[in-house]
Amino acid sequence: MKKVMMCLLLLAGSGVALGQTAKAAEHRTVTQVLENSLKSMEGEFVPAAEAMPEDKFNFVPTSGEFKGVRTFAQQVKHVATVNYMLGSAILEEKPPLDIKGENGPDEIKTKAEVVKYLKDSFIYIHKAVATVNEKNAVEPQVKSPFGEGMMTRMGVAVISVSHGFDHYGQMVEYLRMNGIVPPASR
Predict the structure, then answer these.
(1) What is the DSSP letter of 71?
(2) Residue 24's pLDDT band (boundaries 50, 70, 90)?
(3) Residue 64 binned pLDDT confidence (cut-offs 50, 70, 90)
(4) At the topology level of CATH, where does 30-185 sit?
(5) Calpha distance 65→92 (Å, rounded)
């Protein structure tokens, strides 16, 4: 019986000790969670876009099953364009510029122009995500930027992160095929 009591006291004491040293989890708002996720993706995506040299910016793999895939520059421009599409859906307004479809404006061609377009798109999507909060995250719904139907603001904001990371993965392969270690892996 003494052993059982001693074990119970040790367990209770360790629980109290852990409770005193463990920091309480900080409450985060919906806006903060979405913003942190977006910043994380942006923090990997933009440096990866900048890492590809100008002379390889239009690289596309040729060996293997890569027929019809986007070039590196097109990957970057596509993500920027979708950022504008998603931001405008959240804000329920037209994009601040003529994006001309999911691949972006044809006149944006050079690395400098594409990277600027990308960075500007992140400014816009951050502006939109900053408006998503506990009150409007799931109601009211907004028109889907991908055609018919409705989506929640939170759903659209989450797509901005998942979509960017999807293309980031492809860009990492393109970088490595060109002998470039992605900045996030250095």
Answers:
(1) P
(2) low
(3) confident
(4) Four Helix Bundle (Hemerythrin (Met), subunit A) (1.20.120)
(5) 39
Say what the pLDDT of residue 59 is: 97
Instruction: Record the tokens describing residue 160, joined without a space.
Output: 């901005």
Polymer length in residues for the chain: 186
**Which string of b and e fits 6-16 if b means at least 16 CB within 10 Å?**
eeeeeeeeeee
Q: Nearest Cα to 88, choosing from 31, 80, 54? A: 80
Query: Which uninterrupted H or E stretch holds 151?
Result: strand 150-151
Handedness of CA 122, 123, 127, 128 (dihedral sign): negative
Q: DSSP assignment of 19-46, as one string?
A: HHHSPPPPP--HHHHHHHHHHHHHHHHH
> Cβ distance 55 to 144 under 8 Å?
no
- The tokens of 1 are what? 């019986």
Domain boundaries, the chain: 30-185
* 157-90-159 Cα angle (round to 5): 25
- Alpha-carbon gap, residue 85 to 159, rounded angstroms: 11
pLDDT tens digits for range 137-154: 998 789 898 887 899 999
